[in-house]
Amino acid sequence: MTGTPTLPQESRLLRLSGQFGVGVLTLAITLLGLLLVTFIIGRVVPIDPVLSIVGERATAAQMQAIRDKLGLDLPMWQQFYIYVRDALHGDLGRSIRTGQDIASEIARYFPATLELATLGTIFGTLVGVPAGVLAATRPGSIADQIVRVVGLMGYSMPIFWLGLIGLLVFYGQLGWVAGPGRLDPTYGMMMEFTLTPYTGMILIDAALNGAWDVFANAVSHIILPAGLLGYVSMAYISRMTRSFMMNELGQEYITTARVKGMPEWRVIWVHAMKNVLVPLITVIALSYAYLLEGSVLTETIFAWPGLGSYITNALFAADMPAVLGGTVVVGVAFVTLNMASDLLYRLVDPRART
């Protein structure tokens, strides 16, 4: 018979509905907690937002008018309610430094960080996973030692030092890459006044506009900072891949597959990798999140107009609304990546769907 779910199907639907409900509730609680933390930070820092807006020479009446406008005389619970309500509507307040809407400013800066971190993560994954597998399948070999030493260097050397050395060698001495910034000034003007900005990510927008000269110039600018972030990501991903793979290669099902005469590449890349992929998803998601929020020094060295630079400049200017708005965006990115990794779990691991 068709059209009527069987009992096991109904039970599975109930479990999936319950898992979805728990996921939505967890997401809501996490975001609420994030907003609560940023709200408290904004109230306890020793910076008077009213004084930052009107200046020290303002009269008491002017300061009180701004305080009333910001709702700072309301009870704390009411201030927090307004803060959450505005944040859910995409209103993160106005920047003290520029007077502009913070959400619109972040929308201009975030694509640059997203583009840089995405390329870094792709590079780190494409190089780190095979390197980790190679090291795990040949423990103690020269290849294993090289992978471990390269990974250790990625952990140990400060990223700002690597960035300065990279600029000195590849830009200053060899001239293989372009200098700081996302584009040369000429191409920057072309991108701003001639081409249509679809996403804010120059590589994608230049390709969609068919401006391949702009695309090539953007590649020459991004290849060094993205490669630097990719190296840091690769060090972490290769180390964890090696650990996960060595653990799986010692399992009985791997021994059984080898005894049956299965090709080694299939044992490693099909059977072992299927189980390694589950924890590896979390590693890659965490690496991506780290690059999204931890690329401040890289953006500063390469004059990259991303979210990290925006938050840093706002912090130096005591622009706490902008700092907290950027913090909320970073937190939402973390939560989104966690949700995405959880969905991928269910796609690659049938046990998570039962």
Distance between the amino and carboxyl termini: 24 Å
List low-pLDDT spans: none
Q: What structural class do helix, strand and pairing data support?
A: mainly alpha
Cα Rg: 25 Å
How many beta-strand elements? 0
- Give the overall shape: globular
Overall helicity:
over 70%
Oligomerization: single chain
Report on the biggest sheet.
Answer: none
Describe this structure in a few short sentences.
With 354 residues, this protein is mainly α. 77% of the residues lie in helices and 0% in strands.
Description:
Helices cover 77% and strands 0% of the residues. The protein contains 15 helices and no strands. The chain has helices spanning 7-44, 49-54, 60-70, 76-88, 102-137, 142-156, 159-173, 185-193, 202-209, 212-249, 252-259, 264-293, 296-301, 307-316, 320-348.
Summarize the SSE layout with pairings:
Elements lengths: L6 H38 L4 H6 L5 H11 L5 H13 L13 H36 L4 H15 L2 H15 L11 H9 L8 H8 L2 H38 L2 H8 L4 H30 L2 H6 L5 H10 L3 H29 L6
Helix pairs in contact: 1-4, 1-15, 5-6, 5-10, 5-12, 6-10, 7-10, 9-10, 10-12, 12-15, 14-15
Throw out a few tags for this protein.
77% helix; mainly alpha; 354 residues; single chain
